[in-house]
Specification:
The structure holds 2 protein chains of 2 kinds. Chain A is of the alpha/beta class. Among the domains of chain A are: about 30-145 and about 310-365, D-Maltodextrin-Binding Protein, domain 2 (3-Layer(aba) Sandwich), CATH 3.40.190; about 145-200 and about 245-305, no CATH class. Chain A has helices spanning about 1-20, 25, 40-55, 75-80, 95-100, 110-115, 125-130, 150-155, 170-185, 200-205, 225-240, 245-255, 260-270, 280-285, 320-330, 335-345, 355-360, 370-380, 395-410, 415-435, 440-460, 470-480; strands at about 30-35, 65, 90, 130, 135, 140, 145-150, 195, 270-275, 290-295, 305, 310-315, 385. In chain A, α3 (about 40-55) links the parallel β1 (about 30-35) and β2 (about 65). In chain A, α11 crosses α20 (about 415-435). The longest helix of chain A is centred in the C-terminal third of the chain and has 22 residues, at about 415-435. Chain B is globular. Chain B has helices at about 10-40, 65-75, 75-90, 90-105, 115-140, 140-160, 165-170, 180-190, 195-210, 215-245, 250-270, 275-295, 310-335, 340-345, 355-370, 375-385, 390-395, 400-415, 415-430, 435-440, 450-460, 465-495. Chain B folds into 2 domains: about 35-110 and about 350-495, MetI-like (MetI-like fold); about 215-350, no CATH class. Classes of the chains: A alpha/beta, B mainly alpha. The interface of A and B includes residues 1, 104, 404, 412 and 437 of A.
């Protein structure tokens, strides 16, 4: 027995050593860096172009490997904070502020200035996705706004006129009702929806309301304007059935596995429109040549849409920081931007490449002509990144807003109760963060002083300096209404 | 054959034993004991991954019981706790299901039948035909053919192989990966294309047609009949509890448990009539207290000759039948009058995972399916095989019916197994719900399927508040501990009696 035990031990030790020495990273004489992203042909093309670009730049070779097994945000966070994160990470949605806040994403401000991938190289409106407290933590891999893609064949099939380029909420509702009535005669088993979703953020911004106040010190979702928006969303979901509830949407996606279910339903005509970015073309092109249009999201008041993209950050614990930072430099280069144009993964991060003929009218896809220009114009004029507060995580706001909206849609709360609860809960979270973090308390107190000044000036009808406003929506809103001091307005 | 234990000095034997145990001890210490102790310490600090990690070195602050205090002020903590307990309501049904499965499996003939090969080939051929129909465009019909043939095939194969196929089939959920099962059930529950609703739709259509053609008296007659029946059943149970108290076959705990089980459907009834859950529970608690005082204050004919928990297991077993029956009546009372109008408009199957009120029962239904063919069934099978056959022979000689055999021999003889399953079920039940919520509903809709374990995950790993999440985890531990203690205090004795 003892002999067997020791033989097993020796075999295990030998196997461990063999595994260790055969690990290719150790045998490579060039740095191996890992990029946490999806493994698809576009990303592989990106890697290939990166290698060519390095050669052209005379940079020493590196091996860039795609790590697509750890994309789940929690995995990224736990691995990053445990010291074993990928060298380069895609940062989506709430990761973009959460990860830099933990310190696991490297501050690349100085490198960006030196290597030419600072904010000046991309859309200023995207700053909220990778610049925090004036420091840069990455660079966008693509840029884009969300618009409504219209499947023209679906509208033609039901003899319903196509939506106008810019439309109000009442126009949306009227056309939507006509559409679902025509598309769902009695006995329809698989319901056809007018759209897959509407952005509540966009609707709220339309009526002049953001998630937070000007200095991001207070959540303003308890505003009566939010009640009106929530009531409309409930009506569209529950009564008019213009769009599925979140659960219905998820149930629909359970039919078709994977990421592309929304696009399959769009192509098959179960959604008249889908609200998504220009990157949808990646998913649509291989499904055929459809007659497509892009129209703005319906709203009342201030024209806006959601802007954002996939930012890429460098892991602060990377063993190859220099090479990883060079990847960000590559994102601002011509070869990469031309690649983004070619594969239609949204708009290229450097705006001038979105003005090329190749982007606006791709020769191989005449059915898409026109839509690219609409996306480019929206990115320039109406695109706004999401409002974020340094005093509360975006994931908390997202979760509470979603849960309370669902409670309202399921009839457990009125719109007024849901709206009030949103404000109360997020403001309680802000109070909690500020109480526990002395650094945040200082920042909060400073911003509150400014907020009081803003409120006083607004009450007196006087303009305010742009530098006082932290929230991207309020900045754009104030600018559009001429409420900024002239000397600070661009 | 020489063994290790027969060689060397006791000291050498001890060292050898420790050497064998060391990997396990090290693993336990590194991955269980140390994290456990750490999490207890973390629960009293402000550990936030945003500020306390390998990249930021802010010092941890001791915050005393602040995390626990915030926990109970969290607007949804009690909601999630309620969800956790609601999911636990499936435990008695899971126990009954696994016991039922074990009882059925012990009754299957152990004599294999000849020509089994021919039957299996016929089943495969029929299944293949169903598949061809499906591929040939028969759609729904083909799917139903496959289901039908597979069911018939299982039946035939079970009979032919003397029950071993059944045992395998029943145990199948236990060695199927959880996530795969959840994805499968998500598809089964699909409100539009799932087979459950596809099967329910014609049934509901038929039911609606029957209700539609019923006389007008139906609209008020159904709720009235349900109310009368519910009252009759409740009064019978009250009378029964009083009798059992009088003749000392039920202790105080058993009586109170019986009353609580009786009140449970009333809580739902009150809630469906618009009362908040808290108020409904409050009213039910008052009702239970009054009834308990009335019954327990009655002097016993022969004095207090039984323990507090005497008859507890009988009350729980009875509740398994009584509670669903009363719930059915409660549904009839609440919605019976609306049924004709609803039937006229067309009855539609529920949006199982998407509807706030259906999501929890849907998840419980899936849990029940998994629990019936789980290790519990194996434990019951083992328990059943250990019951001395002389007891049944004696019962047969006394002319006992099947029900009497079960109630007076099988059920008491299985009490230790039931006790063990109950304890483990409560422990796993309180800790459970995470995987299902994560895969099937993401805790929604509106937090209706968020359990404490999922809440702990969100707070710890999505929000990064490790101190807060640890406090929640220790509250969960306290709950498990208290319930297990109660179980041991009352259940263990009844099991060993």
């Amino acid at each position: 027995m003892k002999r067997g035990f020791f033989i097993s031990l020796v075999v295990l030790l030998l196997a461990t050593a063999a595994l260790h020495w055969t690990e290719s990273d150790l045998r490579r004489d060039i740095p191996v860096i890992y990029w946490n992203t999806q493994d698809d042909e576009n990303k592989r093309a990106t890697v290939e172009t990166f290698q060519q670009w390095r050669k052209e730049q005379g940079l020493p070779p590196v091996e860039l490997r795609i790590d697509n097994t750890n994309q789940e945000p929690t995995k990224k966070l736990v691995q990053g904070l445990s010291g074993v994160g990928s060298d380069i990470m895609d940062l989506y949605a709430y990761e973009a502020d959460l990860f830099p806040a933990t310190g696991m994403i490297a501050d690349v401000t100085e490198d960006a200035k030196r290597l030419g991938f600072s904010l000046a190289a991309t859309y200023p409106a995207l700053s909220g996705d990778f610049i925090f407290d004036g420091r840069q933590y990455g660079f966008p891999r693509n840029a884009g706004v969300n618009l409504n893609w219209v499947n023209r064949a679906t509208f033609a099939k039901y003899h319903i006129p196509e939506p106008p380029q810019r439309w109000s909420l009442d126009e949306f509702e009227a056309l939507g009702k006509k559409f679902v009535a025509a598309a769902n005669p009695p006995g329809t088993r698989e319901r056809v929806f007018f759209t897959n979703l509407v952005s509540r953020d966009v609707l709220r911004r339309g009526v002049g309301l953001a998630n937070y106040n000007e200095t991001d010190t207070r959540c303003t979702l308890d505003d009566p304007r939010n009640v009106q928006i929530l009531e409309r969303v409930r009506r569209w979901t529950v009564e008019d059935r213009l769009m599925p509830s979140r659960e219905e949407g998820e149930a629909m996606s359970a039919d078709i596995s994977g990421f592309g279910s929304m696009f399959s339903h769009f192509v098959s005509g179960r959604f008249g429109m889908i609200y998504v970015g220009q990157w949808a073309l990646i998913m649509l092109r291989h499904r055929g040549e459809f007659q497509l249009r892009a129209v703005e999201p319906a709203l009342d008041g201030f024209p806006n849409t959601e802007m954002g993209g996939g930012s890429v950050g460098v892991y602060a614990g990377s063993k190859h920081l220099k090479e990883s930072v060079e990847f960000l430099q590559y994102l601002a280069s011509e070869p990469f931007n031309r690649l983004i144009v070619r594969i239609a993964d949204g708009a290229p991060p450097v705006p001038k490449f979105a003005e090329t003929e190749e982007f606006l009218r791709p020769a191989a896809h005449p059915n898409e002509w026109g839509s690219a220009a609409v996306f480019a114009q929206a990115a320039r004029e109406t695109g706004l990144t999401v409002s974020k507060s340094p005093f509360v995580l975006q994931s908390i706001l997202f979760r509470e807003e979603k849960e309370l909206t669902e409670a309202m849609i399921s009839g457990r709360l009125t719109a007024a109760q849901a709206s009030k609860a949103m404000g109360d809960r997020i403001n309680a979270e802000i109070a909690l963060s500020v109480d526990r973090n002395p650094e945040l308390r200082k920042l909060y107190d400073a911003r509150m002083r400014i907020q009081r000044q803003i409120d006083a000036r607004r009450a007196a009808g006087r303009p305010v300096p742009a530098a006082w406003i932290n929230d991207p929506f309020h900045l754009a809103y104030y600018r559009a209404h001429g409420w900024l001091e002239k000397e600070t307005a661009p | 054959m020489s063994t290790l234990g027969q060689r060397g000095s006791p000291r050498r034997r001890l060292l050898a034993g420790l050497a064998f145990l060391l990997p396990n001890i090290l693993g336990f210490a590194a991955f269980t004991l140390v994290p456990l102790v750490m999490s207890f310490g973390i629960a009293f600090t402000d550990w936030d991954t945003l500020r306390h990690n390998i990249f930021r070195h802010e010092s941890l602050r001791f915050v005393g019981f602040e995390n626990f205090s915030w926990l109970f002020h969290h607007p949804d903590f009690l909601h999630y706790l309620g969800n956790t307990f609601f999911m636990m309501l499936g435990l008695p049904f899971a126990i009954a299901g696994s016991l039922g499965a074990a009882l059925l499996l012990t009754r299957v003939s152990h004599r294999p039948v000849a020509r089994r090969g021919a039957f299996i080939v016929a089943t495969l051929l029929l299944t293949g035909s169903g598949l061809l129909l499906r591929l040939g465009g028969m759609g729904q019909t083909g799917v139903w053919c496959i289901f039908g043939v597979l069911a018939a095939g299982s039946l035939v194969a079970g009979v032919l192989t003397g029950g071993s196929v059944y045992r395998t089939l029943f145990y199948l959920p236990n060695f199927t990966a959880g996530v795969a099962t959840f994805v499968l059930w998500k598809k089964l529950y699909n409100p539009q294309t799932g087979p459950i609703n596809a099967g329910l739709a014609p049934v509901l259509d038929g039911f609606a047609a029957v209700v539609g053609s019923a006389p007008a008296v139906f609209s008020w007659g159904l709720p009235l009949a349900c109310a009368v029946l519910a009252t009759a059943v409740s009064l019978w149970q009250l009378w029964r509890l009083r009798q059992h108290w009088d003749d000392a076959s039920a202790g105080a705990v058993a009586v109170i448990t019986g009353l609580a089980m009786l009140a449970l459907p009333q809580v739902f009834q009150l809630h469906w009539h618009g009362l908040s859950t808290g108020r409904a529970l409050g009213l039910a608690a008052v009702g239970v207290t009054v009834a308990a005082v009335v019954i327990l204050r009655r002097p016993r004919r022969w004095g207090p000759v039984c323990a507090l928990d005497t008859g507890l297991s009988a009350e729980i077993a009875l509740a398994l039948g009584l509670v669903p029956l009363l719930l059915l009546f409660a549904v009839g009372v609440a919605w019976g009058s609306e049924l004709p109008a609803a039937a006229a408009a067309g009855l539609t199957p529920p949006n199982w995972l998407g509807d706030y009120d259906w999501a929890k029962p849907a998840i419980m239904g899936m849990g029940l399916w998994a629990a019936i063919g789980s290790n519990n069934m194996i434990l019951y099978l083992a328990g059943l095989s250990n019951i001395p056959p002389e007891l049944y022979e004696a019962a047969d000689m006394d002319g006992a019916s099947s029900l009497q055999r079960f109630w007076h021999i099988t059920w008491p003889q299985l009490a230790p197994v039931t006790f063990f399953i109950g304890v483990m079920g409560i422990i796993y039940g309180l800790q459970g719900g995470f995987e299902m919520a994560r895969v099937m509903t993401m805790g929604g809709p509106a937090g209706s399927t968020t359990t404490l374990s999922y809440f702990i995950y969100i707070e710890g790993f999505e929000t990064g508040r490790l101190g807060y999440a640890s406090a929640a985890a220790w509250v969960l531990f306290a709950l498990v501990f208290i319930l297990s203690l109660l179980n041991f205090r009352f259940g263990n004795r009844s099991a060993n009696d």
